[in-house]
Amino acid sequence: MSRNFLIAFVIGLVCIAIAVAGILYMQRGAHLDLPGQVLKVRTAPLDENSSVAMIDFRISNTSDYPAVVRTVMVYAEEKNGNRLAGETISDPDAKRVFDAIPLLGAKYNQSLILRDRLPPHAVWDRMIGARFDVPDAKLGDRKRFLITIEEVDGKVFEISEK
């Protein structure tokens, strides 16, 4: 190979690497991600066979685009790995639950509801309430709670209690 060809080839590879790095750098905020953490969990019995869980959590939108909530589900994961699906409680009903059950304490945050729009690069403190058809003792013996958020584009995010 000639020396000129080798120099041109290396310069071409460097230019391609710079172009690829520039494209990846420009697209860094295009990936939708909603990381979160559970802040506080409160459970209380409703009757002998059902209970309620109120979960306060923090959620972040790290992308350059807004995220719109399609559905929110709450699961209680047992120690054996089984997931118990909870019936999500609406925000007005959550206020009534807090008023009716003083054991839960005060309602600190708004509920995450359908069609909530999380702006880009925002951090929100929200809560979600769920009713479970199990006694409160069984909820207390859980492994963890999982909050599953589906975005309108179909991507599903999970926030897990540690």
Structure report:
This protein has about 160 residues and is an alpha+beta fold. The protein has helices at about 5-25, 90-100, 135-140; strands at about 35-45, 50-60, 65-75, 85, 85-90, 115-120, 125-130, 145-150, 155-160. It folds into 2 domains: about 1-30; about 35-160, Immunoglobulin-like (Sandwich), CATH 2.60.40. The protein is elongated, with a radius of gyration of 23 Å.
Task: Tell me the major beta sheet.
Answer: 5 strands, antiparallel
When the domains are counted, the total is: 2
Count of helical segments?
3
Intertermini distance: 60 Å
H/E series, N to C? HEEEEEHEEHEE
Decide which structural class fits the backbone: alpha+beta
What is the helix fraction of residues, given as a range? Answer: 10-25%
What is the level-2 CATH architecture name of the largest domain? Sandwich
Cα-atom Rg, whole angstroms? 23 Å
Strand content: 35-45%
Q: Give the oligomeric state.
A: single chain
CATH level-1 class of the largest domain: Mainly Beta
| CATH domain topology of the largest domain | Immunoglobulin-like
Number of strands: 9
Mean pLDDT: 91
Shape: elongated
List segments where confidence is low: pLDDT < 50 over at least 5 consecutive residues: none
Keywords, separated by commas or semicolons:
single chain; 162 residues; alpha+beta; Immunoglobulin-like; 3 helices; 40% strand; elongated
Spell out the blueprint of helices and strands:
Elements: H1 3-26, E1 36-47, E2 50-60, E3 67-77, E4 83-85, E5 87-89, H2 91-100, E6 117-118, E7 123-132, H3 136-140, E8 144-151, E9 156-160
Antiparallel strand pairs: 1-2, 2-7, 3-4, 3-6, 3-8, 5-7, 8-9
